[in-house]
Amino acid sequence: MVWGGISTRLRTPLYHVVGNLTGVRYQNEILQPLVVPALQAIGPRAILQDDNAPPHRSAAVNTFIQQARVNRMLWPANSPDLNPIEHMWDELCRRVQQHHPPPANLGQLLQWLQQEWNGVPRAFICNLIHSMRQRCVECLAHNGGHTRY
User: Fold this and answer.
1) Any bridge partners for residue 15, and if so which?
2) Which of 8, 30, 65, 88 has the fewest CB atoms below 10 angstroms from its CB?
């Protein structure tokens, strides 16, 4: 598993998560070293958009988020996943699949993932993020059902 964050201004490095991601690991390996500095670089209006995965919502993470004064977008339980990062993962997958032959080992795969992650044009990321308003409008119009996103 890999983790990454995007915004219109920057993207975090891609982080390889080895094993199960717990709330403590999410806090220590991702939030502290990657998310908080990125949000600080973006500025006081930056918002963390994660999902309701158990590590993201652990008590330790919630306390850390509050103490670090991170603005977090709240998601209702069982809500549709409108996060633009999902389309970034699709793009990353398409880019890596264009490599031939397939990766020989995990190290090569991780190298290609980081290379392609860095190669996704900023304009593509900005388009994903700027589509959030329309994503929400369509989701509401379809009563939470399927949309073109």
Assistant:
1) 3
2) 8
State the average pLDDT over residues 45-59. Answer: 91
pLDDT band for position 78 (cuts 50, 70, 90): low
Strand partners, 91: none
Which contacts (CB < 8 Å, 24+ apart) does range 140-144 have? Answer: 144/79, 144/80
Distance CA 74, CA 12 (A): 21
Give the pTM.
Answer: 0.87
**In this model, does residue 80 exceed pLDDT 70?**
no
| Residue tagged 């690991």 (tokens) | 25
Question: Which are the contacts of 73, defined by CB distance < 8 A and separation ≥ 6?
Answer: 47, 48, 49, 50
Half-sphere exposure in the Cβ direction for 45 (13 Å, CA):
3
In the DSSP assignment, the letter for residue 13 is P
Contact 120, 84 (CB under 8 A): no
Helix (H, G, I), strand (E, B) or coil at 149: coil
